[in-house]
TrEMBL record, chain A:
<dbReference type="Pfam" id="PF02653">
    <property type="entry name" value="BPD_transp_2"/>
</dbReference>
<feature type="transmembrane region" description="Helical">
    <location>
        <begin position="268"/>
        <end position="289"/>
    </location>
</feature>
<dbReference type="GO" id="GO:0015658">
    <property type="term" value="F:branched-chain amino acid transmembrane transporter activity"/>
</dbReference>
<keyword id="KW-1003">Cell membrane</keyword>
<keyword id="KW-1133">Transmembrane helix</keyword>
<feature type="transmembrane region" description="Helical">
    <location>
        <begin position="20"/>
        <end position="38"/>
    </location>
</feature>
<feature type="transmembrane region" description="Helical">
    <location>
        <begin position="243"/>
        <end position="261"/>
    </location>
</feature>
UniProtKB/TrEMBL annotation, chain B:
<keyword id="KW-0732">Signal</keyword>
<keyword id="KW-0029">Amino-acid transport</keyword>
<dbReference type="GO" id="GO:0015190">
    <property type="term" value="F:L-leucine transmembrane transporter activity"/>
</dbReference>
<protein>
    <submittedName>
        <fullName>Branched-chain amino acid transport system permease protein</fullName>
    </submittedName>
</protein>
<dbReference type="GO" id="GO:0005304">
    <property type="term" value="F:L-valine transmembrane transporter activity"/>
</dbReference>
<feature type="transmembrane region" description="Helical">
    <location>
        <begin position="360"/>
        <end position="390"/>
    </location>
</feature>
<dbReference type="InterPro" id="IPR001851">
    <property type="entry name" value="ABC_transp_permease"/>
</dbReference>
From TrEMBL, chain C:
<dbReference type="InterPro" id="IPR051120">
    <property type="entry name" value="ABC_AA/LPS_Transport"/>
</dbReference>
<dbReference type="InterPro" id="IPR003439">
    <property type="entry name" value="ABC_transporter-like_ATP-bd"/>
</dbReference>
<keyword id="KW-0547">Nucleotide-binding</keyword>
<dbReference type="InterPro" id="IPR027417">
    <property type="entry name" value="P-loop_NTPase"/>
</dbReference>
<dbReference type="GO" id="GO:0005886">
    <property type="term" value="C:plasma membrane"/>
</dbReference>
<dbReference type="InterPro" id="IPR032823">
    <property type="entry name" value="BCA_ABC_TP_C"/>
</dbReference>
<dbReference type="InterPro" id="IPR003593">
    <property type="entry name" value="AAA+_ATPase"/>
</dbReference>
Length: 332, 429, 312
């Protein structure tokens, strides 16, 4: 078994592209679900409209890169408003169903034959990231260091994506920290507890929920940009409901309503997935696990995601960094 | 609680065991390559496929059958090259991405699926006009209505359990789609894996699924309820269960499409404007009978009345001497069994796939909410409306967007009349 | 000593205002703060509220009583914008309030509490209090990002909250999560939080429900206190002892309508009221002891409900 490769990919995944993009999406979910109590099951759609907004603007309409970013951000805000106006007055479980349905609609439209000219059908779009890599300050080459015998290197393109991605995460966490310390954040948390009480104290609950939905959606959409730029393509099925569910797993893993919860959750989530995958597929290839084939390794890690989500909510709903007291009172 | 989790793990382990046996028995007879060619959901017949070794030695040449399926068995595992003869494709079709050659590895005792995605040639609009001209509007309308009712009845079967569970426990069960898949895969395991005829296989699958439904509540959901787990937390737990089960299915069933051993290639019969395979009529009859029996049971039997009382007001029902836990357990058993039946029927009218339940989950939700969350009869009406809407809307909407319409209706219903068609308004405060 | 005098003056003023009024439903008051006309709310075929005309006297404590299902809470919900009335209009301080959303009703100075207390469990007692303050600069998204904009105001709010907490004997609980308080303490917190809004009219929905007897007296004192500070109080209550003790005027509802009004000491002997209670319940309490017994049962049930609510 090639332990060096396994350790190397595992360590790299702690700061890798998936960690960044899911971390960003999870920060958004944390604002919705952790702080405001909004069950937005359509986060994948926010990532999708951002990625596609960028892709279509640049690849189809041949407009500059920064305009694509603006279009993507605008699309996320628009989606939040369109989704929010009718649904924010619904009960929590209805909101969940409506947002999941809306996200599926968005995905089905992206992959439809009817709009193939614009969105590229199930193949998606590619060839829109040149503007981003043109800004890359790192000259071509591999960057990194050897940790003992374990090489940890990223190429210049990946390094540029990761640098931007982690800067975005830092800025988003900073914003969340400032907001949740403020009276604005207090209103959100109060809405999570009981919106009628907040209404009776003269706060416009709808407006705050909308602000929360837009903010979380915009932060989630940054994850969509990171995906599109890192892989230089977007495909509709990347933005399916499972993506949203992984974000929820990440938020709960790290601890809901904690500023750094989603980021650390994302790191743990991907380190575990990559590690399990690496070890299992190496073991299968080496013949240590005779009853499994290499194709079966893929599903196993998602079985673990499901199992992990169940066990977390049953035994440690506050996540790794959550405050036990806070949960113990009434949420359980 | 620890006991509950151990029990649940045991339950899942048992499930894995159940699936593992036949699923391994199945592919053992299969070592080679196979695939299915479809153009916009319709099977493509008579396309020539040639399989050669990596070095170019010809192995076999086959043509797709009426279901668009083909397969080639090979003696030795290893790398093989698959070439699709483009000239044998229908004139309006082409391979997506352009390349008609795939190179794949065949593992020992395993069938690898070869993917050729077909798409209509040229602008999609032209092709649709051509098909629209073939049959007059009303014939098509009648056909689609029939198919819509067929789909609606399947959704209704699945929705029944979801709705009753929601009504009695407040759980929005995102894992309900997986119960549908479970039924189909169990039936497949008994049918193809153990060689039983489909009808006894389906009966056994439904019974096993009902037992698993019972076990799920007895050892898992019931325990969580006793702990006082909130409905939102339970909802997210159900997502975990859904992910878990879905990938367990993938692990043992594989990612390919499968069909039952019987009734797959039935010649269609023409009744008036409607053409369908006889199995569809039988399936619909079975679905109707089951729905009517369950409906009558809800109205007439003691347990049925108790179930409705619990759905109406659990606290009141409990205080008037109804054993709420027992009622909920019966509902889980019934819901599991009926969902499994829905899975078998779905597998019969389409194909079996590990995501088949997930794919119709939102349609089930649409049916349930349309009828009013928690009302059993509402779910039936709502589901049939959803099924009809999906199929009939393809008269005007491209088929791949047909679910979009249904989901849009779901959203609109929740906005305008959250209590559904047959639901009552809740009193606020 | 001085406070004593003002106390009696306020009470005397309120009583004087009611002195010569007829005991009819909808009787006009000398200085009404709230005037309600023709409010109707239907649920399906059931008419839950159908109030022709009612006025609430400024600076008084008015009790709203009636048998179960009389529509008192629903009426509260209409007035405070938590539910939409099918018809009707009402004015608060001369301002039309029908169709005004709940948060604007509160901002106008009409603040309510709930029958089942809505303490914000996973916020601390102090955060609960701070939330009540109005026109906070830091509640704007952009200004929230820059603490220096709102820090000063926050300190002032905290000071006011601390005063109120001391008055309501919750100062020791200041940094505890509200979810850890007892039922009675939550009632106190909810009332204190409502005062942070600085309302003119306080609407209390069953302030005594689920409160243990030891706290009842202190709660009563706080309600009387509200009037002494110049506020108007409208409250729903079952406990006739309490109604008699603190209210200046009583409005009786039955089957959605106001059937009688009058001073607390004579209202229970009003024929219409007796009819309403008897008509609504065959086992309606006739004697004082039966009444308390029944109420204790109801309270126990409510307490269980609250217990359930908090465990969710």
């Amino acid at each position: 078994m090639d332990w060096i490769t396994i350790i190397s990919t595992t360590l790299k995944s702690a700061v890798g592209v998936e960690t960044v993009l899911y971390g960003l999406a999870a920060i958004g979910i944390n604002i919705h679900f952790g702080y405001t109590g909004l069950l937005n099951f359509g986060q994948a759609a926010f990532m999708g409209v951002a990625g596609y907004g960028l892709a279509v603007t640049v690849a189809v309409m041949n407009l500059p890169f920064w305009l694509g970013i603006l279009v993507g951000l605008g699309a996320a805000v628009l989606l939040a408003v369109l989704l929010g106006i009718p649904t924010l007055q619904l009960r929590a479980d209805y909101l969940a169903i409506v947002t999941i349905a809306a996200a599926e609609i968005v995905r089905l439209i992206f992959r439809s034959v009817a709009f193939k000219d614009v969105f590229g059908g199930s193949d998606g779009q590619r060839g829109f990231s040149d503007g981003f890599y043109a800004l890359n300050p790192f000259p071509e080459g591999d960057y990194g260091f050897n940790l003992g015998p374990v090489p940890i290197f990223f190429n210049h393109r990946l390094l540029w994506v990761l640098l931007v991605g982690w800067l975005l995460i830092a800025v988003c966490c900073g914003i969340v920290y400032l907001l949740m310390k403020s009276p604005w954040g207090r209103v959100l948390k109060a809405i999570r507890e009981d919106e009628d009480a907040v209404r009776s104290l003269g706060k416009n609950v709808f407006s705050y929920k909308m602000q929360s939905l837009v903010l979380g959606g915009v932060i989630g959409c940054l994850g969509g940009f990171v995906y599109g730029l890192a892989f230089a393509s977007v495909q509709p099925d990347i933005f399916g409901t499972e993506t949203t569910f992984y974000c929820y797993t990440i938020v709960i893993l790290g601890g809901a309503a904690r500023v750094l919860g989603p980021v650390i959750g994302s790191m743990i989530f991907w380190v575990l997935l990559v590690l399990v995958y690496g070890v299992l597929s190496e073991a299968v290839a080496a013949g240590y696990i005779p009853f499994m084939t290499s194709i079966q390794v893929g599903p196993v890690r998602y079985i673990l995601v499901g199992l992990g989500l169940i066990l977390l909510l049953v035994f440690r709903p506050q996540g790794i960094f959550g405050d036990k007291r806070e949960i113990a009172i009434d949420a359980r | 609680m620890r006991r509950a989790v151990i029990a649940f793990t045991a339950f899942l382990g048992g499930l894995v065991f159940l699936l593992a046996g036949p699923a391994h028995a199945g592919p053992a007879e299969c070592q080679g390559l196979k695939g299915t060619l479809k153009l916009q959901g319709q099977p493509v017949n008579g396309v020539k496929i040639a399989v050669t070794t990596e070095g170019g030695q010809p192995v076999k040449e086959v043509a797709t059958n009426a279901q668009g399926a083909w397969d080639v068995q090979v003696d030795k595992p290893g790398k093989y090259k698959v070439t699709l003869d483009v000239s044998s494709l229908p004139q309006n079709a082409e391979v997506r991405g352009g390349t008609n050659v795939r190179t794949l590895t065949v593992y020992e005792g395993n069938c690898s699926a070869v993917l050729f995605a077909l798409q209509p040639k040229g602008a999609p609009g032209q092709q649709q006009n051509a098909s629209a001209e073939e049959s007059p509007f009303w014939t098509q309308f009648a056909q689609l209505t029939f198919e819509g009712i067929n789909l609606g009845l399947i959704i209704a079967l699945a929705a029944l359990g979801l709705s009753l569970v929601y009504g009695t426990t407040g759980l929005t069960n995102f894992a309900h789609g997986e119960l549908v898949t479970l039924g189909a895969i169990l039936a497949y395991a008994f049918n193809v894996g153990m060689g039983l005829h489909l009808i006894p296989a389906a009966v056994i699958a439904v019974i096993v699924a009902a037992a698993l439904g019972y076990a799920q509540d007895r050892f898992f959901w019931g325990q969580l309820r006793r702990r006082g787990t909130g409905t939102i937390a339970m909802m997210i737990i159900s997502i975990g269960v859904a992910l878990f089960l879905r990938y367990v299915f993938l692990l043992f069933f594989g990612g390919q499409n499968e069909a039952f051993a019987q009734y797959t290639a039935q010649p269609g019969v023409q009744i008036g404007p409607i053409s369908a395979a006889p199995k569809n009529f039988v399936a619909m009859a079975v679905e109707l009978v089951v729905l009517i029996v369950v409906g009558v049971a809800l109205l007439r039997t003691r347990t049925g009345k108790a179930a409705r009382a619990v759905a109406d007001n659990p606290a009141l029902a409990a205080s008037s001497g109804i054993n709420v836990d027992r009622v909920i357990r019966i509902i889980w058993t019934l819901g599991g069994g009926v969902a499994a039946l829905a899975g078998v029927m779905l597998g019969l009218s389409q194909n079996l796939k590990y995501t088949m339940g997930q794919d119709i989950l939102l349609l089930i939700f649409a049916g349930v909410t349309l009828g009013g969350l928690g009302t059993a009869f509402g779910a039936l009406v709502g589901s049939i409306v959803v099924g009809l809407f999906i199929q009939v809307s393809t008269l005007w909407v491209p088929p791949e967007l047909k679910s979009v319409g249904a989901l849009a209706v779901l959203i609109i219903v929740l906005l305008v009349r959250p209590q559904g068609i047959l639901g009552r308004r809740e009193r606020i405060g | 000593m001085r406070a004593e005098t003002t106390t009696s003056e306020r009470k005397a003023a309120a009583l004087a205002a009611f002195k010569d009024l007829a005991h009819d439903p909808g009787v006009p008051k000398p200085d009404p703060i709230l005037v309600v006309d023709d409010v109707v709310r239907r649920f399906g075929g059931l008419t839950a509220v159908d109030v022709k005309h009612v006025e609430i006297q400024r600076g008084s404590i008015t009790a709203l009583i009636g048998p179960n299902g009389a529509g008192k809470t629903t009426f509260f919900n209409q007035l405070t914008g938590f539910d939409t009335a099918d018809a009707g209009s009402w004015t608060f301080n001369g301002r039309r309030m029908n169709g005004v959303p709940a948060h604007k009703v509160a901002r106008a100075g009409m603040v309510r509490t709930f029958q089942l207390t809505k303490a914000l469990s996973r916020l601390t007692v102090m955060e609960n209090m701070r939330l009540g303050a109005q026109q906070q600069k830091g509640e704007n998204f952009w200004r929230a990002l820059v603490p220096s904009f709102w820090r000063g105001q926050e300190d002032a709010i905290t000071e006011r909250a601390e005063d109120l907490l001391t008055r309501f004997k919750l100062a020791a609980k200041r940094d505890d999560f509200a979810g850890s308080l007892s039922g009675g303490q939550r009632k106190l917190l909810e009332m204190a939080r409502a005062l942070m809004v600085e309302p003119e009219l306080v609407m209390l929905d069953e302030p005594m429900a689920g409160v243990n007897p030891a706290l009842t007296q202190s709660l009563l004192g706080h309600v009387k206190d509200l009037r002494e500070q110049g506020m108007t109080v409208l409250f729903v209550e079952h406990d006739m002892d309490m109604v008699r003790d603190i209210s200046d005027w009583v409005v009786v509802m039955a089957q959605g309508s106001v059937i009688a009004e009058g001073p607390p000491d004579t209202i229970m002997s009003d024929e219409r009221v007796i009819d309403a209670y008897l008509g609504a319940h065959h086992d309606a309490p006739l004697s004082e002891s039966e009444l308390t017994e029944q109420l204790q049962e109801a309270e126990a049930a409510l307490e269980a409900e609250i217990e359930e609510e908090t465990q969710k």
